[in-house]
Amino acid sequence: MGNFGVWIGIFILSIACFIFWSSQPLQYYGEYGPGPGLFPTWLSGVLALLSILYIIDCLRKENRISFSNVIPKGKVLFRVLTVVASIVVFILIAPWTGYLIAGIIVTIIMLLPDFKWYSSLAISTIVTFALFFIFKTLLDIPLPVNAFGW
Amino acid sequence: MDAFNLLMSGFEIALTWENLLYCLIGVSIGMMVGILPGLGPSAGTALLIPMTFGMDPISAIVMLSGIFYGSMYGGTITTVLVNVPGEAASVITSLDGYPMAKQGRAGVALGISAIGSFIGGTVAIIGVAVVAPQLVKFALAFGPPEFFALIVFGMTMVVGLAGKSIIRGSIAVVLGLVLAMVGMAPGSGVVRFSFGIPHLIDGLNFVTIAMGLFGLSEILLGIEQQMKKPEKPPVVKGLFPSRKELRPSLMSIGRGTGLGFFMGLIPGTSSVVPALMSYSIEKRISKDPKRFGNGAIEGVAGPETANNSFCGGALIPLFLLGIPSSATMAVLLGAFILHGLQPGPTLFVRHPDFVWAVIASMFIGNLLLLFMNLPMAKMWAKVASVPFKLLFPIIIAISIVGTYSISNSLWDVGGLLVFGLLGYFLKKADIPVAPVALMFILGDLMEKSLLQSLALYKGDFFAIFTRPLSGTLLALSVLVITLSIVAGFKSKKDNLVDVEA
User: Is this structure's pTM higher than 0.90?
Assistant: First the structure.
């Protein structure tokens, strides 16, 4: 149960099964030649076969990948989760706060564990305003904005 | 003569102040991408694609290709000075470059790698200018069976060379093809696997996938590995080799140039392969192989030249056939398509101004890089000491803005996270991610050419083997896979690291 490789193999196998199942309603071969279902059907079969071979390979003692070697611990795990959380926070708040506020908040979240709060605030403000200037002002690329237009 | 005139007109376009500026920006960013840990050339190039949306296509590709070969130069600096390869091809350079730095000869290692990179890069680009126009007619003869066979050959090269095992490489390749199936099916136009989500009708976005798989996943892994304080770089002095070392260095540079260029022509290889082969050749023909690993200058000159020469050679399959040789080339191909340029045999005919301006800009870029490397090596060494804890939040912030700007949608930012986590866990499971991106970009062409071939031969797949070129390529593919399996069983296969993070 603690073999990470086996779980990844099962995940890939389930993707293969899902693709195979989803491609069944698609035409396999029509009057004028192969249809849109041909490639996915064969590909899902190949992926399923490979995932089974991968699971068997991971069951070998020398290829075993334990969860304890995969999932980081302590401070490092916290840092990895911080990055994931900061992106989720951006997706959730950017439509309301606009890029400038959302950008500063997510950068602060990532900087705070290593820098003092005022340094984090200063760095994140500079980085966010610089990116806003480059993308929005200089390159004219739209960024999420709030009701005030920033 | 015609090619010469076209090249001259390319120089005219490349030497406008605007394109010169973009070339300078590109190679400078590339140098930084190569130097700073946590970003490889693929991620660096993908990260900057959104910045080019508002640009003219020529300026955009000039800048993006500058990032590509700039990162090849930059990767060497951290490798030699602090033994932290900024990109995968530089891993080989660390074998002798770092020992040279420890002996107080960091300047010589950096100097010879800059000279070798310049010679290798420039000669390869001359090669592209001479060879590519001659190959246009040959490329125009490519029909659907040939394209299909060429992609299969590239696929087997990727599987045979990248990663711990054939099974893992194959899974990565097929996953890339599966991702490519989302959206409109080639030929019929039927929308597949979109599950009613409007964002998926046009398929998944390559830039989001590349930024997630290469950028975010590398950052997450980097957090685990690089939170320690960076090593202080040694003093850089004396950039040129001694008179005694000059001849063997030049010989290594010559061999590296030829090897890198020809390896660039083969789809599915990456710059790691010519660098590794060059090192192995230099060691094998050396009178005293024991010097290798202890600071042999040929061990730096050969691989560095080969990996830069490879970048030039790899432009030929990209320009002529639309087939990228490596993950970074796949990112460049993605940029081509975003800017409305479809690489393939007709690119030389329809957009000669674009092709020759990009080739000319590479001459200029290589020259700029030589000047940026030799006298400014000390400054770049200081850039290498930027702590990762400061660097990664900035890279994530750029990634978020970059992915958002692809289609002005937070959907792509979500995609960045999903593919970042996918890349992170695949790498932990020893499954290489470069083939995923490479095959994603080729998936549509592969399916289209397979369906057209089957329609041509009334569903008989084996008829593809009967055409001389496609038959040869498929036979070679079978040979590559068979050799890889046999070598794997004998445990004699060179296990190359996951290519081009």
Answer: no
Least Cα distance to B445 among B175, B161, B149, B38 occurs for: B149
Query: How many beta-carbon contacts under 8 Å exist across A and B?
Result: 166
CA-CA distance, A127 to A133, in Å (whole number)? 10
Distance CA B416, CA B419 (A): 5
Cβ contacts of residue B299 below 8 Å, gap of 6+? B93, B95, B96, B97, B279, B282, B283, B292, B293
Q: Closest chain B residue to A21 measured between Cα atoms?
A: B193
The torsion angles phi and psi of B162, rounded to 5 degrees, stand at -100, 115
CA contacts within 13 A on the Cβ side of B329:
30
A28: closest CA of chain B, how far (Å): 11
DSSP three-state, residue B19: helix
pLDDT tens by residue, B81-124: 777 666 667 778 888 888 888 888 888 888 888 888 889 988 98
Domain positions in chain A: 4-70, 74-138
Q: Is residue B283 predicted with pLDDT exceeding 70? A: yes
- Summarised one tens digit per residue, pLDDT across range B442-488 is 898 899 999 999 998 888 888 888 999 899 999 999 998 888 888 77
Binary contact (A91, B414; C-beta < 8 A): yes
A17 touches B: beta carbon within 8 Å: no
CA pair distance B261, B256, nearest whole angstrom: 8
CA B82 to chain centre: 23
